[in-house]
Amino acid sequence: MSIVSVKADLPGRVVLLTGNEAVARGALEAGLGFASSYPGSPTAEVLGVLGQLAREFNLYAEWSINEIVAMEGAAAASFAGLRSMVVMKPDGLNVALDFLTSLSLSGIKGGMVVVVGDDPHAHSSIKEEDSRYLAKVAHVPVFEPATVQEAKEMVKEAFALSETLRHPVIVRCVTRICHASGNVVLGELPFREKKPAIQKDERFIINPAGVSMTHRQQELKLRKMAEIAEAMPFNWYEGPADAEILLIGCGPGFMYAREAVDILGISDRIGLLKLGVTWPLPEKLVLNHLRHAKKVVFAEEIEPVLEESVTSLAARHWSELGTLSFYGKNSGHVAGPLGPGVGELNVDIMIGALASVLGLPARQPENPQEPEAQPTAGVPVIDRELAFCAGCPHRASFWAIRAALELDGRNGFVAGDIGCYTLGLGRTGYYLMRTVHCMGAGVGVASGLSKLARLGFARPVVALVGDSTFFHAAVPALIDARYNQAAFLCVVLDNGTTAMTGHQPHPGMRVNAMGEEAPAVAVEEIVAGLGIPYTIQDPYDIKTTTRVVFDLLQQKVLHVLILRRECALVAARKSKKPRVYVDPQRCIGDACGCKRFCSKVFSCPANIWDAAAGKARIDEAVCNGCGVCAANCPQQAIAVEGRE
Amino acid sequence: MTEQPVNLIIAGVGGQGNVLASQIVAGAAVEEGFTVAVGETFGASQRGGSVMSHVRITRGKAIGPLIPRGKADLVVALEPMECLRVLRVFGNKQTRVIMNERPNYPLSVLQGEAAYPSPDNLRAEISRLATLLLSFPATEVASEAGNPVAANVVMTGALAGTGLLPIRVDSYRRTIAELFTGQARELNLRAFELGVEKVRGS
What we know:
The complex is a heterodimer.
Chain A: H1 3-7, E1 14-18, H2 19-29, E2 34-37, H3 44-53, E3 60-63, H4 67-79, E4 84-88, H5 90-106, E5 112-118, H6 132-138, E6 142-143, H7 148-165, E7 169-174, H8 175-178, E8 180-185, H9 211-230, E9 236-238, E10 245-249, H10 251-264, E11 270-274, E12 277-279, H11 283-290, E13 295-299, H12 305-316, H13 318-321, E14 325-327, H14 347-358, H15 393-408, E15 413-415, H16 441-451, E16 461-466, H17 467-483, E17 489-494, H18 523-529, E18 534-537, H19 542-555, E19 559-564, H20 568-574, E20 579-582, H21 597-601, E21 607-610, E22 615-618, H22 628-632, E23 638-641
Parallel strand pairs in A: 2-3, 2-4, 4-5, 5-7, 6-7, 10-11, 10-13, 13-14, 15-16, 16-17, 17-19, 18-19
Antiparallel strand pairs in A: 1-8, 6-12, 9-11, 20-23, 21-22
Helix pairs in contact in A: 2-3, 2-7, 4-5, 10-14, 15-19, 16-17
Chain B: E1 6-13, H1 18-31, E2 35-40, E3 50-58, E4 74-77, H2 80-90, E5 96-100, H3 107-110, H4 119-129, E6 132-136, H5 138-145, H6 151-162, H7 169-179, H8 182-201
Parallel strand pairs in B: 1-4, 4-5, 5-6
Antiparallel strand pairs in B: 1-3, 2-3
Helix pairs in contact in B: 1-6, 1-7, 2-4, 5-6, 5-8, 6-8, 7-8
């Protein structure tokens, strides 16, 4: 719940922690020496907490520019004997995968834990990726906590195990761990000596004795891991010892299944096997329970990884196991509204799955509030599209770019990227973007398209990339663009922070993860270093920005335009917000002919329409005081008071 | 069968402070010795999407952080339409509702493509679905406390004041005091007390 609880030296005390805080606490209880991350949902808060506590706990913490650099740093600390942790989103594991597949060959020294936060339903992500498949590729064991308490315990145990095996270990959390909160019993915060050292003869090399030898080592470690996993307290069984129906689950999916069993009142008919280590599979434990089962149901989030491991195990033992039926994502029984493996699990999905496997009637609605049973009584519930915040500089940038592209009239093509501004693919960004993929991809795609000019592609090309994404992944594409003579406009939407994930520092800022002053790396320094011409412009000045974009589009060369204006949320926190209000004497409502520009066209959520008065109004609870609407109002009916 | 948890949903729009409200309630519940599970949606925070926090309080064993359909005992809504959205899926005949009356308009309403229901119709529909509806203009009350943004804490105060959860008002106060320092602590405590008074006075 707060940093006070995360650092409390009160063993035995029960506190409320978020899953991310519990992961941080587990690492502190394990004597963490080094932590690194690039901010990504849903795990972004882990390093935020560790950074704040770095000095107090004598550890080093950094926001790295991307996940592979973060992982390389954590590995280095491990080589020097420190316990290290690297935290990322599943997309981040994609970025770091090349290194991880090498690291699991070379081995490590100090315990090293990779925390990955998968996001079933993609609540705050761009995709529903299951990182466990990547763990398999990298030959790295996977722990999966089912509760917030378990997240803390598993991180601690993962460090110990990693050190024993000299092998990195992944703790796979999902959103309903990371962004959940629950009771956590605090453990000891032991003193652990942190003296980084590498012995004279120590080395960490991918294939010191040939590729096959190191691959063999990897396989032996995994076998050892499977043996250790057999006896781990994170695996347990409840229900009748000889249950013919067996549910195997992990993570929050298991918790939903257990509640579904309670609600259906079938706990005397079904055995529940909960696994904490899902890869490599604790085969003896699973086999012991498969022996008494006839039907096996799976509860796990996103892909059928556990399901496939268990069915493959059963296939290898079919002569002794006899006939078994499997119910999960592959059979289609465990499925959300959009199908198996899509979206996240919940209690209702597990009730439906278990009822169908057991041949129970579909659950009777316990109340008339079930949506299908409920009349709407003419009161609609309107969907809320995500939108740029009130005062967001991106809204001004998108407006200006749209206006410039319209003026240009050549059907300009806009390639997007990953950050708050990705929302601009929708209504709030006037549907400008034509491609969105992974971090940094927009610059590469724009570059590629512009190179097609010599084959007759005549549309001007614009890439939109945020400042944090620029540092993370855009620079290689820009080097390529210069060398291969691409000609496009790369717009860096520089709001001075990593806004999407909660305003974490990045190299463009004067502060690091530990709150220390840092030498900032300006976007324009890098661009100048690459020999690419650039312009800096404040997007709040929409008229000038529109003209600048238009002029640059006419030049048909590679150019970087930095639209620089601090994130409105950061600005609003720093100083007293100016008061923006509509002068009802000046606003003439629909008689103006502006088509309600402020609310309906520019569409800042703070600009609302007062239907009773027939005039525009500012919602003071939402407004962040940027005043851009005041500059746009044709009647100059919007006033700004108290601007510095 | 195990003991049934008390299920509370806090519903609102990204940026209204759902997460803070749920952390205050959950922190106070842990202080009172309950087992708590909270599920948040905060990817959409600050960006105008629908958000909800599931807060589950029990004396029994650990449970998952998501409330099943039709199983919400209490809904605290920071915005009227979000109240209805949640009630239609998670409410039942016994659900009690505490609601901020201040609407927050979706983009499609601002752009004139959809019409926001009238306050009277919304209230009537919510009253029809719930066994109890307490509503008041919490944003205006928060302005009285010093900042309209503190409507989430006003609503938390209202929840505490009703006594509908088995949590003492003092436990909420202590949790707020632990979460904040300085001026923010004063503002939030003030907002909380105004919320408590609002329901006790009515």
